[in-house]
Design a protein that fits this description.
Chains A, B: GO terms for molecular function: DNA-binding transcription factor activity; transcription cis-regulatory region binding. The structure is a homodimer of 371-residue chains. With 371 residues, chain A is α/β, with parallel strands linked by helices. The first copy, chain A, contains 12 helices and 14 strands. Among the domains of chain A are: 56 residues, lambda repressor-like DNA-binding domains (434 Repressor (Amino-terminal Domain), Orthogonal Bundle), CATH 1.10.260.40; 153 residues, Rossmann fold (3-Layer(aba) Sandwich), CATH 3.40.50.
């Protein structure tokens, strides 16, 4: 969403978005916007999804309309969260809560402490609070919980995760495509020994990113990457990277399955092995979390835009609430490989955006050259 | 709370905390713990507060007991949040949500987008969801909202903020004491030109930190600090610091009212003024957010422990729910000045903790020496 910061007295208060702004952003008529927010009114599912995504990203609040929309409902969405010390997860939660708020839904937080036994929100509680839907943010969906929600008639949307069976709607970044892009970038940069730092082992994100990375390396004629698991956790990541870098033939290119683990990797490389990150070792993350852009971090990372992901998830939730029989959807939000100082650059394939970011856009795929 | 990360299959699952662990941590008997979790049972308010704080920080879940505790209630606490891109706010929200969860209360999130008009959660909604209490995290309490909640009988606790009238319970870090310590540290380090980067102008935190900083500088015989406002926002902070550093006599010591603004200050000093932070300019923050410890940031900062603050807030909420007539309490959680590379060190007064952190513990107060 656009950043608005007008707490200071006297600061200019931006005009709140109107129905016309939403119509323009969604590329539909005003009456289509109005119909999209009126339960029972005819609106094509695709149109409604576009309108809700635009409304969420603009922060449009159809207050009275939204309130009357679903009077038989609790207006509550159970949202599970985990590891808010990971800045990307915090951004995603903020974008989701604001997006739900914009269409009159309220976030009921189920924080996950990290023990697998506690990973599912309590179904008892979900039923007691009569939540309209469940959104799982970066947490695993157990088949038991999925079946319980289905039999209770509570729709579930996964954000930044997918379920194995495909029966649950999901919104993710471009896990496979992004990881492939990273592999191609590192091959083009002339690296020799590749490594992958996995997240939690049963995370679909980590699995998909590992697959994309290993597939693209193989296709370029490169060696299979070394592998260790950092479990999306700082301490576990430090330990895994320490072991990798102490090996006789340490990697010169390390792809970490998210930025949070890449921060730990940078710390270990610098502080314990005295390596110049971006010169003696290249480290790449996934998320493009806010910390990645800081001067002392300067992390190359494949982006996942939290506002776009949250907007799609809000639209998916609204769609399934309007039509409970709607089949599951799986949405992939595109990202970009944002190039900074933590990884050696290829000679070609770079582009600078109008807002000053440098991207790697690739080109002809490079082949791995054996040392 | 202790970090537990056992998502990986086969990882050792730590034993969940027992009533005995809580009793030991709180320094009370097991039966006192049990009484503290039983509504109507006799437990001294001080004891109950200690027990609930210990339970929250250990992640103790008295499931069945907690559920039966307050059957006439909704078990919902409305929690307002703002700026989760600030890692300290995200940590505080996580600790609070886990602490509430541990005593059977559920977090209903009211995200604040940043426009002052939207700063109060909607009282309509709070009443409609029949929330038991309201916790405002790092957001301003308007006197209108405060009066509305009082007349509706909904208790309010402020976290990381205080209200002007003192009638609303609050939990804060040691704003005045921490800022005084920072001033003494910078004077002892031989700095000459001091500056303060304020947050949102009507924030009690920013006001209290400014007061402590200016008072201690004056008492040491130093000059009044320069001043600019960064409004707790990255873009506004960058602009304010850019202007300060471009002045004919730029500061050599900059205290930012929180770490989030200090990150922006470090970026501007390095990237736009090519300054060696910690040598040519000293930059100090407040929060000791997780980012402060990263190798490329290495920010000296006065700590606010989120788990301890959340634990006290949960105890305050539980106490007021048990006894609505309880007078407002104002708690200050102690912190430490954690010394890293972003500020020049004084010759004396440093100490190293058993976990390897370096603190400035001061000693004889230094006097400012004019250049």
């Amino acid at each position: 969403m656009p950043r608005r910061d007008t707490d200071q007295p006297g600061a200019r208060v931006p005009r709140p978005p109107t129905i016309a702004d939403v119509a323009a952003a969604a590329g539909v008529s005003r009456s289509a916007v109005s119909r999209s927010f009126t339960e029972g009114a005819s609106a094509a599912p695709g149109t409604r999804a576009k309108v809700l995504a635009a409304a969420a990203s603009l922060g449009y609040r159809p207050s009275a309309i939204a309130r009357s929309l679903t009077t038989r409902r609790s207006h509550l969405v159970a949202v599970s969260t985990v590891r808010l010390e990971n800045g990307f997860n915090a951004s995603l939660l903020q974008a989701l809560a604001l997006g739900l708020d914009a269409i009159g839904l309220r976030t009921l937080l189920f924080p996950i402490a990290g023990t697998s036994a506690d990973a599912d929100p309590s179904l008892d509680e979900i039923l007691r609070h009569r939540v309209d839907a469940v959104a799982l943010l970066a947490t695993r969906l157990s088949s038991r919980f999925s079946a319980q929600c289905a039999s209770a008639g509570v729709p579930v949307v996964l954000i930044n995760r997918t379920a194995r069976d495909g029966a649950t709607s999901s919104v993710t970044g471009d896990n496979v495509g992004g990881a492939r892009r990273i592999a191609e970038f590192l091959v083009a940069g002339g690296h020799r020994r590749f490594a992958f730092l996995a997240g939690v082992e049963d995370s679909s994100n980590s699995r998909d990113r590992e697959r994309g990375f290993a597939d693209a390396l193989r296709e370029a004629g490169g060696p299979a990457p070394l592998r260790a698991a950092g479990r999306f956790d700082r301490v576990a990541s430090s330990k895994a990277v320490r072991r990798m870098l102490a090996a006789p033939e340490p990697p010169d290119a390390l792809f970490c399955a998210n930025d949070h683990m890449a921060l730990a990797a940078i710390d270990v490389a610098r502080r314990e092995f005295n390596l110049a990150v971006g010169h003696q070792i290249s480290i790449v993350g996934f998320d493009d979390a806010p910390t990645a852009a800081l001067s002392g971090i300067d992390l190359t990372s494949f982006s996942q835009p939290p506002e776009a992901m949250a907007g799609r998830a809000v639209a998916a939730l609204a769609a399934v609430l309007a039509d409970p029989a709607r089949p599951a959807v799986h949405e992939t939000v595109a990202g970009e490989l944002v190039v900074r100082g933590s990884a050696r650059l290829p000679a070609a394939g770079l582009a600078t955006t109008t807002d000053g970011r440098r991207l790697w856009v690739g080109g002809a795929v490079s082949s791995f050259r054996a040392p």
